């Protein structure tokens, strides 16, 4: 699972108000090359929750080069775009868990696949 | 899924799509080409403005990634979800580009609000019309699905869901549930006069009061890019309503081994090709190294 996907995932258990962002517990993290596409990065940037992305990047050990607040113009800079691209698309959580910030419910990630299935009483 | 028994009547999806079925499904060349062309049509109906950047799309009931691969080929990023672990394992073994989630759409999509540029679903949503457990109420599950789907899409985005309704009532039930949560749009029927080629697409829009576009008519075989003999102004056959108000250990899966090199992978892919199986084109990423960070 990439941080792009993590940035979209939320805990939707019945009654949960703040199921985002899920906290990452990393056991195994791997890197895979992906095509560098500045157009996509610029398109996706405004859709991201940056604070959640940073927190995720720290949990996966790939936050280097990512500022707390992204300065104007950064999306035109190669160095920032490369760091952003790497953390967003090339670093994958293979094994671990995602934890709901409100309820503490853990969603297991195995072989890179988050198990988001809910129990009957959570729907 | 032509004549014969409908899979939804035989077992719940996570049972029907077991390891055996997942493998058979994904290596069936007829299936591969049907799913690819359904996805191409769904993309066309998504009507993303041309020439833009790659988009972030959701693939509901993504299975082993046949539909997702068509999204990748069209240049888009995607996230898939499916209820069958076996199908998702195949997707991961095949090194699809999108991330996949194990999730039951009838429980709602586990996604935050407003971020996806569009959603597709190929041959999956009709499964929601069946109750697989005593606790399942199809209408409730459809409502929950459409509510959360609506919420995760960006304004102006569309969802295009290709479905195999069992009958008119089922099609109505799906369209009705979608309209009730706020989608506009409706059902598009391609080739309504051909039993073989007839296909249903729910075309749903967020925040635009549009009607569904026209379905394709005419000769399905001649109709590559909408250019068949009958390709005049085609019509919507059914109810368009407006709203009021890349992976895993060693290739070949199975984990273990690891460390298969590029030459090995290329050779294996060549062998599959010779057998006539569809194989991803070789690229600089084929058998790329995976570096363990943590
Ligand atoms: C015919 S397959 C299509 C897979 C893929 N879209 C393709 O084009 O190859 C239907 C898929 O829908 C999935 N499915 C059925 N019910 C589901 C549910 N409630 N939630 C998520 N996926 C579901 C099945 O597991 C199966 O993988």
Automatic annotation (TrEMBL), chain A:
<dbReference type="InterPro" id="IPR005651">
    <property type="entry name" value="Trm112-like"/>
</dbReference>
<dbReference type="InterPro" id="IPR039127">
    <property type="entry name" value="Trm112"/>
</dbReference>
<protein>
    <submittedName>
        <fullName>Multifunctional methyltransferase subunit</fullName>
    </submittedName>
</protein>
<dbReference type="Pfam" id="PF03966">
    <property type="entry name" value="Trm112p"/>
</dbReference>
<keyword id="KW-0489">Methyltransferase</keyword>
<keyword id="KW-0808">Transferase</keyword>
<dbReference type="GO" id="GO:0008168">
    <property type="term" value="F:methyltransferase activity"/>
</dbReference>
<dbReference type="GO" id="GO:0046982">
    <property type="term" value="F:protein heterodimerization activity"/>
</dbReference>
<comment type="subunit">
    <text>Interacts with TRM9.</text>
</comment>
<dbReference type="GO" id="GO:0030488">
    <property type="term" value="P:tRNA methylation"/>
</dbReference>
<comment type="similarity">
    <text>Belongs to the TRM112 family.</text>
</comment>
<dbReference type="GO" id="GO:0070476">
    <property type="term" value="P:rRNA (guanine-N7)-methylation"/>
</dbReference>
Automatic annotation (TrEMBL), chain B:
<keyword id="KW-0963">Cytoplasm</keyword>
<dbReference type="InterPro" id="IPR039769">
    <property type="entry name" value="Bud23-like"/>
</dbReference>
<dbReference type="GO" id="GO:0005730">
    <property type="term" value="C:nucleolus"/>
</dbReference>
<dbReference type="GO" id="GO:0005737">
    <property type="term" value="C:cytoplasm"/>
</dbReference>
<feature type="domain" description="18S rRNA (guanine(1575)-N(7))-methyltransferase Bud23 C-terminal">
    <location>
        <begin position="204"/>
        <end position="291"/>
    </location>
</feature>
<dbReference type="InterPro" id="IPR029063">
    <property type="entry name" value="SAM-dependent_MTases_sf"/>
</dbReference>
<dbReference type="Pfam" id="PF12589">
    <property type="entry name" value="WBS_methylT"/>
</dbReference>
<dbReference type="Pfam" id="PF08241">
    <property type="entry name" value="Methyltransf_11"/>
</dbReference>
<feature type="region of interest" description="Disordered">
    <location>
        <begin position="212"/>
        <end position="294"/>
    </location>
</feature>
<comment type="similarity">
    <text>Belongs to the class I-like SAM-binding methyltransferase superfamily. BUD23/WBSCR22 family.</text>
</comment>
<dbReference type="GO" id="GO:0016435">
    <property type="term" value="F:rRNA (guanine) methyltransferase activity"/>
</dbReference>
<feature type="compositionally biased region" description="Basic and acidic residues">
    <location>
        <begin position="275"/>
        <end position="285"/>
    </location>
</feature>
<dbReference type="InterPro" id="IPR022238">
    <property type="entry name" value="Bud23_C"/>
</dbReference>
<feature type="domain" description="Methyltransferase type 11">
    <location>
        <begin position="58"/>
        <end position="143"/>
    </location>
</feature>
<dbReference type="GO" id="GO:0070476">
    <property type="term" value="P:rRNA (guanine-N7)-methylation"/>
</dbReference>
<protein>
    <submittedName>
        <fullName>18S rRNA (Guanine-N(7))-methyltransferase-like protein</fullName>
    </submittedName>
</protein>
<keyword id="KW-0808">Transferase</keyword>
<keyword id="KW-0539">Nucleus</keyword>
<dbReference type="InterPro" id="IPR013216">
    <property type="entry name" value="Methyltransf_11"/>
</dbReference>
<keyword id="KW-0489">Methyltransferase</keyword>
<keyword id="KW-0949">S-adenosyl-L-methionine</keyword>
<feature type="compositionally biased region" description="Basic residues">
    <location>
        <begin position="265"/>
        <end position="274"/>
    </location>
</feature>
